[in-house]
Amino acid sequence: MRWIRFTLIAMLLAVTAVLASAQPYLSLVSVSWVRRPLRPNDIGVVRLAFASYGGETLLNAKARAQCLGCCELAEDSPIQLGALSPGATKTADISVNFSGGCSCVIKLLVEYEATARQTATGYVVNRLPGSTYLEVTLEPPLEPRVDVLASPNNLLLGALNNVTLTIANTGFASVKALTAT
Q: pLDDT by residue (tens digit) across 102-125?
């Protein structure tokens, strides 16, 4: 009877230790453009580099992106990540259609089938699936384009020349602080 009570207490402590272990979380390492959109309703590709933390390796992980705001996914397919070891960086390229001039929020959901924790004698695998996510806010990537037309386009050497400059913004974003020297 005494050994049954001891076994039950040991099992309860083991279950409590597993449940109390740190939940995995994602940390953003960098955001970069693989391809910038050139105009509204153009597709851009953004690369998110991220790492998983929490002391356990995420097994058979896959990521899926979701967009909110002035953008939508151009391609909605899961990204196979495989195993995510704590601190190791993984990347996901996400094709996004930017429709306007407001912010775009990309939510990257990572789902995994199991976790593994390294021990002195190998690994302990926990077969409970789970998920974690991160969110990134992107400002509109569209840029201004400044065109300058000078008239006349011939200048006399050594003379004071009157020139008219016509400046036009033919891009897709406002110019905030234009200076000319």
A: 789 999 999 999 999 989 999 999
Candidates 69, 62, 54, 130; CA nearest to 92 is 62
Helix (H, G, I), strand (E, B) or coil at 2: helix
pLDDT for 10 beyond 70: no
Residue 4's pLDDT band, with cuts at 50, 70 and 90, is low
**Could you say which DSSP state residue 37 is in?**
-
Mean pLDDT, the chain, integer: 84
Using the Cα atoms of residue 86, residue 87, residue 91 and residue 96 in order, give the sign of their dihedral. Answer: positive
Beta carbons of 122 and 98 less than 8 angstroms apart: no
- C-alpha 25/C-alpha 40 separation (Å) is 34
Distance of alpha carbon 74 from alpha carbon 98, whole angstroms? 9
d(CA 66, CA 100): 17
Strand partners, 79: 63
